[in-house]
Amino acid sequence: MTRATGRKSLVLHLGVVALLFLLQFVLPEYHHLTVTRIMILAVFALGYNVLFGYTGLLSLGHAMFFACGLYAAGLTVYHLGWDVLPAFLFAVAVAGAAAAAVGMIALRTTGVAFMIVTLMFSQVVYLATLYFSRYTRGDEGLVLPARARSFELVGIHVNLADPVTRYYIALGLLAAGILVVHRLVRSGTGREWIAVRENESRTRMLGYNTFSIKLKALTVSGALSGAAGAAYALLFAYVGSTFASIQYSIDALLFTLLGGAGTVLGPVLGSFIMFYLIDIFSEYTTAYLLATGVVLILLILYFSVGILGTLRRKWLHWLP
Amino acid sequence: MSRTTNRQTDLKKRSTLKKFAAAAGVAVSAQINPAMIGYVQGSDRPIRVGMQLHRTGIGASYGRWYERAAVAAVDLINREGGINGRPVELVIEDDGTDPKRGAEVIEKFATQHQTDVAYGTLFSHVVIGSSPRAGELKLPYYVVSEGYHVASGSLNRYVFQPGITDVRSQVSSMAPWVASNLGKKITMIFPDYAFGHDHRDYFSSAIAAQGGEVLELIPIPPTESSFTRYFPKIPRETEVLYHVLVGPGVLTFVKEMGQYFGSGDRPQIFGFIDSLEAVDFSTPQLEFLEGTHFWEGYPRYAQPGQSEHDRFYRDKVGVDQNGASVNDPKDISTYSHMFGCWETLFIIKQAMEMSGYSGPADRPALIEATESLTEFPESRNHPQGRKIFNGRIHQCFGSQHISRVEGGRLDVVHTTSIEDGLYEPEADYTRMAL
Questions:
Q1: Exposed (0-12), middle (13-18) or buried (19+): which is B279, by Cβ within 10 Å?
Q2: What is the pTM of this model?
Q3: The pLDDT of residue A1
Q4: Residue in B32, B93, B99 nearest the CB of A238
């Protein structure tokens, strides 16, 4: 990528962040709340994309990292009385560490076996949230206490019950996620991930430690997913085992496939489209998942590498 | 192909695209512009009740009947003049029986549909996942869930459960009869998540208070689809097998229990009707249930001496004397739960009329009016029976029924008093700010 295309790419990504910033001033109230949620889910998809889109590893268990963040933040706040910020940072660290630990085992497998192993680990996390229901209240979950709905940051009182504040926090997290991933995929690390995706044997033959490259990708991916989970718990004041279920792993996969795996903004776009497809179709039919499925099939037929993937293939070759 | 034809084709494509874009534009603007939904905010607008419905997901069989009961109640209210002279409009959104979607639906009610209240949720995790948003959006949220979560004080001032008794009260009220009539050595089979744990904890302590004991606790993981390996864990000396399960595996569970016991000796079996809500007792392999007992919140089969209120309620909702749809005898209702939807709507009406509710600005007054309610006498608005309401914990208490399976139907053998299910309140929502 030349310096000029690099600048073009950075401008585009900053432009998307600026657009999301401006959007809040024109959105009706419901969509203001909805976009806040979508931005958090988009961070989850960004994390998933690091592993699937850039490194070529298809995980069916990413809900476990989202849940690690969700529970690490929620339980420390609920049971230990931690403040919001330390709980968030701790949750990101826990999710990253969990991803590294899972990777030490799961990355010894490839292909379908990797999918199955990640799915199994994810089921373990899901069942653990039910098994330790004394602390988690299992499927019912926990409502975070009123004291966790605000915190002080350099003398500023931040009220998490305020929708505008929540929007800014979600936007800040998404912007950070986009810029981190954008930076990473254009760095040597990102090129190593792509090399593994394109031809792992050749990468290994060239002297790279592909296990370590994949482990790094999985750790970054898990930490980003955990950040999304922690933010979801703290912003919306609820943790429950549903968020650890396979449905959420599939959601991240769909967001990424739809928007364009291996493009930074693809998962963000995919998150928006999927959310609104379900939201709109569910008003008209109980078969909204069927309708959503049909739309997805059509999109895959005509945009086989996702929406942004197709745009990159045809016109925007510089898109990272 | 000639140049003209090409041009015509291009024009055709372009006009088709324009039509598509226009249609998409209308569809999108209808989504993002509440003004296009077709009502005008004002005093003559209908009272909008947002129903958070389990149309899909594991709660769908309940959701189908919750909707029928709610639609029938709204129809009746409107025929009789509405609320404060205004018609009532039910705005239904599917929550997929999912807490994340549930919270989103609450936001949609409060901001897009601009409903006056939200209502009708059954599954505990959806209630608990949705309640923080209802509280922060200051949207009164009337649930029909049975869970102890409302009365426990873990939610907030905007959440009420005035139409159905909670699990803690239900199991506490039945323990004395179980101990006196079925046995005191109990084995419990329950779902290994919070709903089951409420049964485990509150029934265990209630039976202990009667001099009984729980010999074995057999939790069933929610992912289980076959149950045969759990039955050998039932101790031989068990006198009563207590079972409660919900979800898609219930019929398999009950059938496999029958296969396990066969025609040989078995303990007394006492189940929660949750294990067989919406299930026909004439389903093959359920014959072994003959002579077993069930808790019922509201008897599915019309009983001798049926009240005029029950007759009225069945007629309006479309339920026959056997608890099935009048249009399809195989479509069995969730009779022990869905009455809560009917009754709750009349409580919302009562509280709105007491507070002179005219719009969202009156929500605090609506909350206080609901909290001031103390009793709902048996009537056609409350066909399940008299209830008392504790405004401090936002929870009602009513009578429960124990029925025996006789000739493939359920006959009530005992009805508890309201006092049997009362417990010391552990919370006081009225101290929370509005």
A1: middle
A2: 0.86
A3: 57
A4: B99
